[in-house]
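Handout, section B. The chain below has 280 residues.
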Amino acid sequence: MIPLLDVWSRSPLSDLSNVEIVLLSVLAFGVAYVSGMVGMALGVVRFPLLIAFGISVPIAAGVNLAVSVVTAVTSGLEHWKNHRIAFRVVLLIGVPSFIGAFFGSLASDLIRIWILLSIITLVLLWSGLVALARALHTRDSEEVRDESIQLPLPSTRRLFLEITVGFLIGVLGGAVGLVLGTVRMPALVNVLKLHPAIAIGTNTIIGLLVGASGFVGKLINGDVDILLIALLGTTGMVGSYLGARRTGQMNTNNLRLAIGIVLIIVAPFMGVRAAIEFPN
């Protein structure tokens, strides 16, 4: 059994001051709160924050995935309790996403990653602006009533569309090494025409499954830190739960507005990643 003192000395937390630890915890809470509210893991935001605090890239990646998973559990439970999860869509998008991610990872050496990341950046900006425009030009003051939200009826065309969307996003995510919940969200709302509240809950569960599979690989490679996961996971779980509760208190337009704002904020992070990958 490893002594607790040894666990602390090996953890990146031992290199941080008390003020930095508190600040990192608060930021993790804030990211998780927004994540739970809009149904996007926001690992693309959390990851550079961890790097900024001096956490090594492999450990930051493993911790980021772990925190994304545990925060999705608490927010996912809240969305499930309030009937905001379309399990049919989870299945028809999640499974093809896994398959697509496999092929995308195989083809990653044949594709210029910075081009794909640049495309993702433009998609996020465009999707965010569309969401903002719809929210600002539509009058909707009613609160979300989860029990009254209806999932579009399945049809052959719709089932094909859901599978295709899942596969293509999986290929793209596998090629660039990201879960891409931020890309999946506008696809759920704009392409599959899901109600924003259902899209938020559904995307949370898909992100949970995809993130868990990615974390297994990091765990096998040893790219994790238990103390850092425990700290950020705890504050993140509280934040994501409160954020998910906030989803049920917002009207449809405010949900669109929140999704649009988050997409526009996340886009520059993707742009920076694209610049780092250039000219690979």
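Note. The two ends are 44 Å apart (CA to CA). Compare this with the example in section A.
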